[in-house]
Design brief:
The structure holds two protein chains of two kinds. Chain A is α+β, with helices and mostly antiparallel strands. Chain A has helices at residues 12-25, 41-44, 64-74, 90-98, 108-115, 117-126, 141-151, 174-192, 249-265, 296-303, 307-315, 395-408, 418-424, 428-432, 439-444; strands at 5-8, 28-34, 48-53, 78-80, 102-103, 134-138, 155-163, 166-171, 197-201, 207-215, 221-233, 236-242, 270-279, 282-289, 332-339, 341-342, 348-349, 352-353, 356-358, 365-369, 376-377, 384-392, 410-412. In chain A, helix 4 packs antiparallel against helix 5 (108-115), helix 7 packs across helix 8 (174-192) and helix 12 (395-408) runs antiparallel to helix 13. Classes of the chains: A alpha+beta, B mainly beta.
Amino acid sequence: MTLNGVLVANRGEIALRVVRACRELGIRAVAVYSDADASAAHVRMADDAVHLGRSAASKSYLDEDKVVEAARSAGVDAIHPGYGFLSERPSFAKAVESAGLTFVGPPSSVIATMGDKAAARALARRAGVPVVPGSDEVGSVDEALAAAEEVGYPVLIKASAGGGGRGIRPAGSADELRTVVAEAQREAASAFGSSAVYLERALQGPRHVEVQVLADTHGSVVHCFERECSLQRRRQKILEEAPAPGLDDRLRESLCSAAVDLAREVSYVGAGTVEFLVEGEEFYFIEMNTRIQVEHPITEWITGLDLVAEQLRIAGGAPLSVAQDDVTRRGASIEFRVNAEDPDQDFLPSPGTVEALELPGGPGVRVDTALMAGDVVPPFYDSLVAKLAVWAPTRDQALARGRRALAEYRVDGLPTTIGLHRRLLDHPAVVDGTYDITTLETWLAGGT
Amino acid sequence: MGSHTITSRTPGVFYHRPSPDAEPYVTQGASVSEGDTVGLVEVMKTFHEVKADAAGTVSKILVENEDEVTIGQDLVELET
């Protein structure tokens, strides 16, 4: 069985990415759009498009019923959720399954398990994958204080139902913890609909390294090596690279095996990413993202795989196109996220009109964007407007290629993070590949 | 008595309340001081509080909850 038609339940560059993969595989691609996106590139390049509703995401891309109904009316047999929006909502995957359609991703039960932090940690322990020292869910301040004594300060208070770096608060001492736990519970209740929180030891300057996995419906699971994603601001990644610089082969092998073990334990299906914190020779599982990642192009660059095509093949019931031994890596790749934000104004979102646009090109350069000259960047959605990913045989050459490509890249009409990336590539820790998850924020705050 | 209009500093979606189940920040007839929050604008998944830039009594809320707003759009009218 292969898919005949896919509803692409997303917008922007990732919608376009999925549309492109569908077209190359001979699958009919149907876009969806809000009022604000009526003439967007992902709509123009799809075979068909269905209007969802008003511009606000809650009235369009986040409306589960409308998206399922769009798929029905378009006569497709599957829905690809992209990333963000409905991609990690178990209720949506369930609704897609109930409608007799194929969800391009894991079963709703797997999304539910991995989306529940405590359940995911328990599962990792069962799979023999190390987790950051932490507690079970805590219901009261006294329980939190007792748990923190065991875990060891400083701790992080995390919402069980949180994700994407949201719902996390630090506490360095018992006094701080007392105040923060109640706040964290209130915030978790209003943001995620559940006040459940747990504690984790706060590591001191770890690196964020994640492993890409692919799993089919026939029981095969492979990893596609790792990505280094430590350059983050407010827990949002801004630059990623593969392979992770300075990671020795033994540690790489352990990380990749752990990711495969975890995927097997949860009977994973599709493309997924297992995220770890790495400190010295130790690594700890933090979460699994049950969808395609923003930064998937760097893995595609170094492995030669087409991860979105693999997702679509897996959803159609086909076995993986590769066995583990066929997945090899070559060279180095770096991705720069281009966000419509003003780094000089504390990253204030900067919707607006693109007056002129010059994209970089040439050898080893890939730009994933749905933004064309004259387009309006609406205020309603994520600020990511493009991804520049470069590849070269060595990391030094990739850095040089990144500098060259960023110098070519011009967006007029609204501020973006392109200039920030140019400066970031001169940072000694970025040049040396010795940065950790504190590096970017320290640098932005005026430090080194 | 004069009147004063609070405008939006950014385009986005205007909210009357901090969260769907919460009470509205202000209602017609409420008195506000300078610096009080009178609404919320969501722009690119980030939330920005709309602050009263004058003191007064709310005479009219000019935008419906969850309506789309443009930069500089009138949001709340005060009697000062």
